[in-house]
Amino acid sequence: NICLTILKGRKVINEVFDLKIMIDGPIGGILADGIRMIFFIAFAITLLPMIFYLLTLQKALNRCAPENRAMSPAMVWLNLIPGFGMIWHFFVVINMAKSLEAEFQQRQIENEPAPGKTIGIVMCILICCGAIPVIGPLVSLGGFVCWIIYWVKMAGFSAKIAA
Length: 163
Fold this sequence. Notes:
Number of helices: 6
Mean pLDDT: 83
Low-confidence stretches: 1-24
Structural class: mainly alpha
Distance between the termini: 81 Å
Order of helices and strands: HHHHHH
Helix content: over 70%
């Protein structure tokens, strides 16, 4: 009796929500391809700036003397691992600040203590808080702005070392 009710309920749900029926045939294939293309483009638009950002961080670390580096330049690429990258970003920001501070001290270049650490930590916190329901999109926007500021600062510090 229970099985019949479940099957009957399932049939009703299938009749109302069955997406297979709605997108079968050539139109369904075109629609599915279009959706895949939109996801691919969105992924590429998100990934390309991240790659250039990580290249900037790697270049800044490469310009630091090996004894001043708090982390290997290649370690910045761990930020691309989904989920783990959000947490790893905190470590990257802290180690970038340590490395740049040591490099500036060794070269006797005047600069702020722990270069970029404050804006970097704020960026990481806002990006992590972007997962909070309701306020997430607003907080993520703040994280995005801080990310751009941090990126520009790191590029500036890297240029200062290169000079």
